[in-house]
Amino acid sequence: MGNTRNIWIITGYEMLALQGENALKIEMLAKKIGISKSSFYHHFADMQLFVEALLNYHLEQSKVIAEKERLAQTIQPELIEILVEHKIDLLFNRQLRFNQQKNEFRETLEKSNQIIGNEFVRIWATDLQLNLSVKQLESIFELALENFFLQINPENITFEWISNYFENLKRIAKNFE
């Protein structure tokens, strides 16, 4: 991938993550990165191809996160540090959730969840040490995940906020024993 193409993708990825799909205006992106609009068309031809590149980039980022999660042993501090480090990826995932009515967004969200979800549930189940079935834990996790993505924003993805979120989730999950 050429350096200029990377710049377009990373900038577009961050803009979509932070401001939503309406932020994906070629002129606005070009101004932000200081590159002419013609450069955009040289690399992507149209906005649809650009969005596809952003979605593919997200799947690659999901693999990076999943690998880090695979190596983590605990929610706190290891997993929380991974989540804070990947703030933009979490916010991008949030935008995928908000735009699930579009097939390509829904499909990318499903693929991303498959890549990341299993490792996350494993760490979470180990950390909770609850007497619940895997199916019960997965169901609670699914609800918690939806709630998490509804609550996050660029300001609150901090170690403290995520730590408090998981402590509250742990307290709630214990009620199911």
In short:
With 177 residues, the protein is mainly alpha-helical. It has helices spanning 3-19, 26-33, 37-44, 47-71, 75-85, 87-98, 103-128, 134-151, 159-174.
Amino- and carboxy-terminal Cα gap: 50 Å
| Approximate strand percentage | under 5%
Q: Radius of gyration, rounded?
A: 18 Å
Q: What is the succession of H and E elements?
A: HHHHHHHHH
Helix content: over 70%
Tertiary shape: elongated
Uncertain residue ranges: none
- Major sheet: size, sense and barrel closure? none
Number of helical segments with 4 or more residues: 9
Counting DSSP E segments of at least 2 residues, the number of strands comes to 0
Q: Which structural class do the helices and strands define?
A: mainly alpha
Average pLDDT: 92
Would you kindly provide a written description of the structure presented here, covering whatever features stand out?
The chain is mainly alpha-helical. It has helices at 3-19, 26-33, 37-44, 47-71, 75-85, 87-98, 103-128, 134-151, 159-174. Helix 1 (3-19) crosses helix 4, helix 1 (3-19) packs across helix 6 and helix 4 runs parallel beside helix 7 (103-128). It is elongated. The model has no long low-confidence stretch (mean pLDDT 92).
